[in-house]
């Protein structure tokens, strides 16, 4: 990261204006040129990204502005709301993560403002729209921006497009209109410059897909397979567990299945939207649902804790994982079992997580189609070795879901721990590893098996 983020100051104005103009030049806002830095009447966060100024540049100061983010704060129906007024990155510094870093900093500063969402108005430019989608924004409203005249060729055979000049003035030369987006065809035929204006909205109280009610409602349709749940139900029977806890139970299918099998079941889940789906299912009354994280679990009550569909990979740092194991150990009775699955990093699954390879389409229960795919954003190595072997990476991907009414995109990071990392951390947390299977047929794990399906036992009293 060769840039620094800070508040914009008056001295930055010439460089700020240059960055904004150059950034907008390659977009449909090419003619939106300002001659002074934006000043807001209400409260605003006005950030810039700067780099040391190249030799020979004549604007004042010793830094060049290469990124701008202005966010204005206002009130709607008594609720605080934030709107992105400007986001711009100098063309020589695009694809360096500047806009994302500016947004992260603005959101960090706005954290205590009690905002439910942040929005932005933009047009259909591919760079802007894919940036909004990759940062958790969804399209919420659209309408048209229609231009008449100016540098754009007038495609209107009637010349004045049917609007009159005030008395005494000549024929209108330029016009700008807002139009409905339901049927843009006639406007596009008649005028050379028509843009779709879009309101992008990012919920700040929803940061992951399990928290979004629209996606929680589709989870079971997208994940119809039962091989993992069948495995853990058979295992609960095999180890003779009475009380079973499903940590990260999501939409509750396994928890309800375990209750049907006769176990006393607790389903723990941090995402309220997923828990709502679970609670509404037939058989849900037989399960005790707990909203929260592992620290919310009571001590010494479970015979078996399960974490399925790779919940264990959501604990990204060594500290988070160690902390979770402390709570799971505490929650288990002495001799109780812990069972979970984690993908084998040696198989490098993420290399196949491309939009082409992962694209699925299915009918939405309320009509229309759902299209979904994932795209890897970054793979970050974790430093150090375990038993002389490199540790597995943290992989961040964006999951896209296009619904009939919205394009949702949520980033998600998963840690891929090696078998040695899993075994060492479990041993340190007071567990004895009994078995590591490599796939759902229960066969022992090998160097290239897809999964590590771990069964461990709580040691100590
Ligand atoms: C892929 S889903 C799996 C859901 C369910 N176990 C299943 O088999 O379908 C991952 C779940 O883990 C939950 N989760 C994420 N972080 C968690 C944490 N720190 N503690 C507990 N659950 C977590 C998510 O909210 C989500 O519901």
Can you offer a commentary on this structure?
The protein is of the alpha+beta class. Among the domains are: 4-115, Gcn5-related N-acetyltransferase (GNAT) (Aminopeptidase, 3-Layer(aba) Sandwich); 209-345 and 418-458, 3-Layer(aba) Sandwich (Rossmann fold). It has helices at residues 13-25, 98-109, 126-134, 185-190, 213-216, 219-222, 227-238, 253-260, 272-279, 318-331, 355-358, 419-428; strands at residues 4-7, 44-52, 63-76, 79-89, 117-122, 138-148, 175-179, 193-203, 243-247, 264-269, 287-291, 302-307, 332-343, 360-363, 369-380, 385-386, 389-390, 394-402, 407-415, 431-437, 451-458. Strand 10, helix 9 and strand 11 form a beta-alpha-beta unit. It is elongated, with a radius of gyration of 27 Å. The site of S-adenosylmethionine has 15 residues, from loops.
Short key terms for the protein model shown above:
single chain, 461 residues, alpha+beta, Aminopeptidase, Rossmann fold, 8-stranded mixed beta sheet, 7-stranded mixed beta sheet, 21 strands, 23% helix, 34% strand, elongated, binds S-adenosylmethionine
Q: How would you summarize this macromolecular structure in one to three sentences?
A:
The chain is built from twelve helices and 21 strands.
Low-confidence spans: pLDDT under 50, at least 5 residues?
Answer: none
Could you give the count of β-strands?
21
Q: Assign the CATH topology of the domain at 209-345 and 418-458.
A: Rossmann fold
Computed structural class? alpha+beta
Please outline the major beta sheet. Answer: 8 strands, mixed
What is the end-to-end distance? 49 Å
Bound small-molecule species: S-adenosylmethionine
Strand order of the largest sheet: 1-2-3-4-5-8-6-7
CATH architecture descriptor name of the domain at 209-345 and 418-458: 3-Layer(aba) Sandwich
* CA-based shape: elongated
Fraction of residues in helices? 10-25%
* CATH homologous superfamily designation of the domain at 209-345 and 418-458: Vaccinia Virus protein VP39
Keywords: Methyltransferase, Transferase
Domain N-acetyltransferase: 3-156
Pfam families: Acetyltransf_1 (PF00583), Methyltransf_25 (PF13649)
GO molecular function, one term: acyltransferase activity, transferring groups other than amino-acyl groups
